[in-house]
């Protein structure tokens, strides 16, 4: 069983479930009002650790610097979401006990007992309750006390996702093109000239017609088509890096020293008074 002397070792540790899957970072540790022993812790889960889940310390153990929990990852992430400030109320704790199938102090869940314990918790002093920061003031001797201060730090990563698609598609259009082509053709040319007037020796004029033929030729345009490559188009990808700013709220723990006779106390810093 993890005890109060191991709280600082628990905080900030990486938690794994029963199958060895990573669940998240330990954020806060909560102490039992009656026994003062740690019995709950919160984990930063989800994308970039933006969600908080409660999980019992019961059955948990150290594996080097890591924590091995007694529950699987899905059960932890589906635990009731509880927003707490400085103290985990008994009603909230009972809700978590019911979810994880546990009993308080080894006893079964009883509504009457819950009401009694809640009243007693409200009347108890806050020095031994659940701390907002996951730590409590631990007295080593009558002459000294110690407290551990923690702060949240942003852990930023990247995730690849589809931003768009490009398609290279070829299509055909038609247009009319006019080309001037020179063509050659033969024309009939008639020439007449006067005869010499001398008598012919062939005799008289024949009774039949005399026909002579000449053939005329001309060129006509002939159209043919050929396909030639005129251009090549290529599409590729390249990676560019841009700077994006991520903003989130983080919390820091401070210490205040109150009481009479604290004037001149050495070693005060931060928000200590």
Q: Would you give an account of this structure?
A:
The protein is α+β, with helices and mostly antiparallel strands. It has a domain at 4-137: Roll (SH3 type barrels), CATH 2.30.30.240. It contains four helices and eight strands, in the order H-E-E-E-E-E-E-H-H-H-E-E. It has helices at 7-10, 73-77, 90-100, 111-123, and strands at 14-16, 22-31, 38-45, 51-56, 61-63, 66-68, 138-141, 144-146. The strands form two sheets. It has a six-stranded mixed β-sheet with strand order 4-3-2-1-6-5. It has a two-stranded antiparallel sheet with strand order 7-8. A hairpin with a 5-residue loop joins strand 3 (38-45) and strand 4 (51-56). The longest helix has 13 residues, at 111-123. The chain is rod-shaped and about 165 Å long. The two termini are 36 Å apart.
Tell me the total number of β-strands: 8
CA-based shape: rod-shaped
CATH class of the domain at 4-137: Mainly Beta
Low-confidence stretches: 106-141, 265-273
Instruction: Give the strand content.
Output: 5-15%
Query: Terminal Cα separation, in Å?
Result: 36 Å
Order of helical and strand elements: HEEEEEEHHHEE
Count, helices = 4
Average pLDDT level: 77
Keywords:
273 residues, alpha+beta, SH3 type barrels, six-stranded mixed β-sheet, two-stranded antiparallel sheet, 12% helix, 15% strand, rod-shaped, disordered C terminus
């Amino acid at each position: 069983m993890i005890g109060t002397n191991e709280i600082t070792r628990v905080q900030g540790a990486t938690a794994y479930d029963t199958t060895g899957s990573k669940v998240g970072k330990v954020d806060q540790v909560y102490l039992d009002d009656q026994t003062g022993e740690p019995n709950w812790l919160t984990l930063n889960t989800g994308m970039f650790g933006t969600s908080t889940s409660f999980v019992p310390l019961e059955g948990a153990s150290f594996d080097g610097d890591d924590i091995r929990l007694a529950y699987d990852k899905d059960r932890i992430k589906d635990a009731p979401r509880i927003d707490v400030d400085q103290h985990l109320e008994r009603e909230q704790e009972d809700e978590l006990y019911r979810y994880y199938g546990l009993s308080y102090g080894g006893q079964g869940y009883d509504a009457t007992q819950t009401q009694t314990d809640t009243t007693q918790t409200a009347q108890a002093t806050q020095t031994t309750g659940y701390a907002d920061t996951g730590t409590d003031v631990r007295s080593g001797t009558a002459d000294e006390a110690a407290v551990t201060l923690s702060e949240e730090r942003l852990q930023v990563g990247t995730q690849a996702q589809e931003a768009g698609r490009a398609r290279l598609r070829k299509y055909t259009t038609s247009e009319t093109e006019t080309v001037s082509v020179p063509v050659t053709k033969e024309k009939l040319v008639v020439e007449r000239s006067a005869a010499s007037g001398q008598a012919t020796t062939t005799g008289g004029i024949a009774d039949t017609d005399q026909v002579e033929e000449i053939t005329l030729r001309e060129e006509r345009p002939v159209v043919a088509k050929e396909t030639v490559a005129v251009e090549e188009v290529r599409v590729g990808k390249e990676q560019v890096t841009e700077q994006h700013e991520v903003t989130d709220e983080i919390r820091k723990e401070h210490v205040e020293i109150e009481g009479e006779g604290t004037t001149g106390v050495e070693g005060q810093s931060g928000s200590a008074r």
